[in-house]
Design goal:
Elements (H helix, E strand, L loop, with lengths): L2 H9 L4 H13 L18 E3 L28 H15 L3 E5 L9 H14 L1 E7 L2 H5 L3 H9 L3 E5 L20 H18 L4 E8 L7 H10 L4 E8 L15 H13 L5 H5 L3 E2 L6 E11 L2 E7 L6 H14 L9 H14 L1 H13 L1 H5 L4 H9 L3 E11 L4 H4 L2 H8 L3 E5 L2 E4 H6 L2 H28 L18 H5 L18
Helix pairs in contact: 1-12, 3-4, 4-6, 6-7, 8-9, 11-13
């Protein structure tokens, strides 16, 4: 390693381009939403997502936002997805969050998936792989290879009863019937961390409908009991887009957070106790979150304690001062050496802030976590007899076509933080899903696939006639589904061959 990355991290713990991205995001925030709860433009500039990276999926989920023809759409080429990542990087700056998503990306050849993860990280983005996770069970060691060969550090597993096609759990109708599945994934994650010695941050996404809302408290109880595995949960009330089943109804913000509160505190009426600590990323009707710490001691059940205290004057001042000075700071892409240099830069840049506001903030926390025996908890934690784990509870609320057309919908759209590159523009995911932009993008992929198919067929006929096959056609990554298997040699068991799908959509 050269000294340049070390010096850059020390000299500018938050890169200048990240500060500029935050400033541009903050400029979009209406004055009435510029409160202590707002993190857009203060810590995050938004979140990007790929499109067309692998439209196919081997599940048949009841609340699917993709169109009916997605399984017949060829994946975008590696070069196209890399161009998307470049556009996202220009928007978010260094350390920006990007979701590798579309249909089920683990159906893409393993080498290509590794290449995309590596490319995102090389650009300075933090990629999170969005997946149903079944491929990790079917292809032993896949998760470990993505971590070691690709550098994957973040993954999100979609687990809920709206899914159809998961082997061994197709009859599950209640969320607590999936606890054994969640236990299987917990063991898989622990094993991958242990075998690789690498860091892996794991989230889970849950589609929420009128039918499974009553299962949300059970999910929360399981997550609190397993907070060392899953660090974030994203609840997403279903929206009327894509091939979502007719009559599959979503739930309101208030109903969802009431069910979350019931899982945490045993009473849905305690929702105010929870939402008093909520933060926003953009418009509060789109995205809300409550960050917290889960405390586990041998003589007490695990308990959840919100981190953000926006109504506490001292906390508000300390967090505000930190975000003003170090908003956008992240260590998630750093090597150990660069991470230490960045930490040294923070310590030497603002010692007054750290000693005068941040240290007192941290000293208030033992009493919040255990009001009766605060320092006994800390002593137990040092001795390994207590655990303190981070857990972030998030709700995302997508819009359908009708809601997008309202004044409130347009206001939310103007503040959108979750976008995908479509052509040369970054487009709100609500527009992508609800206004047909995804289908039009897929039309372009199908047309590219048809051209490739025609060119390849002509090459094969030329070969039979004694002509020369144009070799670059064999490396194209926009082949129609099934054509790759006809003209390319069989792939090894670890190559990511998706020919043995489960139940297709």
């Amino acid at each position: 390693m050269t000294l340049r990355p070390l010096f850059a991290a020390f000299h500018s713990p938050v890169p200048g381009e990240t500060r500029r991205a935050l400033a541009a995001a903050w400029a979009r925030v209406p004055v009435r939403l510029r409160t202590a709860r707002q993190f857009l433009g203060r810590q995050y500039a938004g979140c990007g997502a790929t499109i067309g990276a692998m439209p196919r999926c081997d599940f048949a989920c009841r609340g699917c936002y993709l169109g009916a023809t997605a399984n017949r759409v060829p994946a975008a080429s590696l070069d196209e997805v890399k161009r998307q990542l470049g556009r996202i990087r220009a928007w978010l700056g260094e350390g920006g969050n990007v979701q590798l998503t579309d249909g089920e990306l683990t159906l893409r050849p393993e080498g290509e998936l590794i290449a995309l993860i590596r490319h995102a990280r090389a650009l300075g983005l933090v990629p999170m792989l969005m997946t149903h996770g079944d491929s990790f069970h079917r292809r032993a060691g896949l998760l470990e290879r993505l971590m070691v060969d690709g550098g994957l550090t973040e993954v999100s597993l979609h687990i809920d009863t709206t899914q159809r096609g998961r082997r061994g759990y197709r009859a599950a109708r209640r969320e607590d019937e999936l606890d054994s599945l969640r236990n299987e994934f917990a063991q898989l994650i622990r094993r991958a961390r242990r075998r690789t010695g690498r860091r892996l941050e794991v989230a889970t996404t849950v589609t929420v409908t009128r039918d499974n809302l009553e299962g949300v408290p059970a999910i929360m109880r399981w997550l609190v009991a397993n907070a060392e595995v899953f660090k974030m949960v994203s609840f997403q009330p279903v929206a009327p887009v894509g091939r979502t089943e007719a009559g599959l109804l979503g739930v309101s913000v208030e109903e969802l957070w009431g069910a979350i509160a019931e899982g945490l505190y045993g009473d849905a009426r305690a929702v105010a106790r929870l939402t008093a600590h909520e933060g926003w990323l953009g418009h509060p009707a789109c995205s809300r979150f409550v960050q917290g710490l889960v405390v586990r001691q041998l003589d007490a059940p695990p308990s959840f304690h919100p981190l953000l205290h926006p109504d506490d004057r001292r906390d508000r001042a300390a967090v505000g001062a930190w975000l003003t000075r170090f908003g956008g700071l992240t260590w998630r892409l750093d090597t150990p050496g660069v991470g230490l240099a960045r930490l040294a830069g923070v310590l030497t840049t603002a010692p007054g802030l750290l000693l005068g506001q941040i240290a007192p903030l941290l000293l208030r926390w033992p009493a919040r976590l255990d009001p009766h025996h605060p320092w006994r908890l800390i002593a137990r934690w040092f001795r390994g007899r207590a655990r303190i784990e981070y857990l972030n509870i998030v709700s995302h609320h997508f819009m359908g076509r009708t809601e997008l057309a309202t004044a409130a919908g347009r206001e939310r759209l103007a503040l959108c933080v979750f976008k995908a590159p479509v052509g040369d523009q970054l487009v709100s995911m609500c527009e992508v899903n609800a206004l047909g932009l995804r289908d039009r993008y897929y039309d372009g992929l199908r047309e590219a696939g048809r051209r490739t198919h025609t060119e390849s067929s002509n090459a094969v006929r030329s070969l039979h006639a004694g002509g020369e096959v144009v070799e670059p056609l064999r490396s194209s990554r926009s082949w129609p589904v099934g054509w790759r298997e006809l003209v390319q040699p069989p792939q090894t068991e670890h190559s990511g061959n998706p020919s043995s799908n489960g139940r297709g959509r």
